[in-house]
């Protein structure tokens, strides 16, 4: 261990979070890193032979044995996905410390972690639900106090036609829309600060152009300068996480499709709908991976596997199959 480095865990956690921040994760992700690191470190401090304040906990106390004990307590009230996320955070933390020469090795491989099944996609239910949603939102609904159908349609279209995450939508700037007509694209800053480029078809391009024109009329030409946030609220201020979630939920209510939105999916149901339709239309796992910014090919393959299973279930439900089943015993007799 380097002699001149302060070995207190809390200070090293802050160094780690500073390093992570340069990769431009969402504030939500950074908060989750901090929460998982502090929670487990506190359990180690409390379980020491002589319990000590967390601020005095040294990195030398974080052994495979102490971490196994801490994780067993951490796991008791939590779901497997939460435990797995915390384990991954600590594994990344120690990888950072090893690379910096703070510790000689990573103890996390000796700490157990649960197996977490790949979550199933949660697209909007109903074959024509996306079209019903877009149609309803495109109308000027006078029941709204501050209707802005051009903006609402742009939000939904970006999620349904480009598969953007909530954090990615919030990070978009006006300059994120690039290219000349016929070759338009949206440049997206995804997880881990990875940039990906998604083609923009003419229909989506028209929706976004109409939105920016309406914004120019509302707030003036300066409101659509290149470094401005692409999505704004009714005051012209950048949309925030809660505001965007509320906007999407209100669109569901206006379209009358709240019963077709999978529980807990919210805006993510639109991204899953985009990916599911790609799979249905024959896109490969690698194509889905590139367009959605997945870090694992297995995640993208999951959309294809689920779609294939749904197609087989639909064929199985065909009444003609039941007729065949009734005929088989008497064939040739």
From TrEMBL:
Q: SUPFAM superfamilies per the record? A: DNA breaking-rejoining enzymes
Name the Gene Ontology biological process terms: DNA integration; DNA recombination
Molecular function terms in GO for this entry? DNA binding
Domain Core-binding (CB), first and last residues per copy: 7-98
Q: What positions does the domain Tyr recombinase occupy? A: 119-316
The keyword DNA-binding is annotated on this UniProt entry: yes
Q: Which PROSITE patterns match?
A: CB, TYR_RECOMBINASE
Q: Which keywords describe this protein according to UniProt?
A: DNA integration, DNA recombination, DNA-binding
What InterPro entries does UniProt report for this protein, alphabetically?
CB, DNA_brk_join_enz, Integrase-like_cat_sf, Integrase_catalytic, Integrase_recombinase_N, Integrase_SAM-like_N, Tyrosine_recombinase_XerCD
Can you say what this protein is called? Answer: Site-specific recombinase XerD
Cite the source lineage: Bacteria, Bacillati, Actinomycetota, Actinomycetes, Micromonosporales
């Amino acid at each position: 261990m380097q002699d001149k480095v302060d070995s207190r865990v809390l200070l090293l956690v802050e160094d780690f979070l500073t390093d992570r921040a340069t990769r431009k994760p969402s504030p939500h992700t950074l908060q989750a890193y901090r929460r998982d690191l502090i929670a487990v470190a506190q359990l180690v401090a409390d379980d020491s032979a002589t319990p000590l304040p967390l601020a005095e906990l040294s990195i030398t106390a974080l052994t495979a044995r102490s971490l196994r004990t801490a994780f067993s307590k951490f796991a008791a009230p939590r779901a497997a996905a939460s435990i797995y996320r915390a384990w991954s955070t600590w594994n990344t933390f120690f990888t950072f410390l090893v690379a910096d020469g703070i510790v000689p090795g990573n103890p996390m491989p000796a700490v157990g972690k649960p197996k977490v099944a790949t979550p199933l996609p949660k697209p909007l239910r109903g074959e024509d639900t996306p079209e019903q949603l877009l149609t309803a939102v495109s109308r000027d609904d006078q029941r709204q106090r501050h209707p802005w159908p051009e903006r609402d349609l742009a939000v939904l279209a970006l999620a349904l036609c480009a598969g953007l995450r909530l954090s990615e939508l919030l990070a978009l700037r006006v300059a994120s829309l690039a290219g000349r007509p016929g070759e338009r694209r949206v440049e997206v800053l995804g997880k881990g600060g990875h940039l990906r480029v998604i083609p923009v078809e003419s229909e989506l391009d028209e929706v976004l152009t109409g939105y920016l024109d309406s914004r120019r009329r509302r707030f003036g030409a300066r409101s659509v300068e290149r470094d401005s946030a692409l999505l704004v609220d009714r005051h012209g201020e950048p949309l925030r996480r809660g505001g965007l979630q509320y906007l999407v939920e209100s669109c569901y209510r206006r379209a009358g499709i709240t019963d077709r939105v999978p529980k807990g999916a919210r805006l993510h149901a639109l991204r899953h709908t985009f990916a599911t339709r790609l799979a249905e239309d024959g896109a490969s796992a690698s194509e889905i991976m590139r367009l959605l910014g997945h870090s694992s090919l297995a995640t993208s393959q999951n959309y294809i596997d689920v779609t294939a299973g749904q197609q087989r279930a639909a064929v199985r439900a065909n009444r003609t199959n039941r007729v065949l089943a009734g005929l088989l015993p008497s064939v040739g007799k």
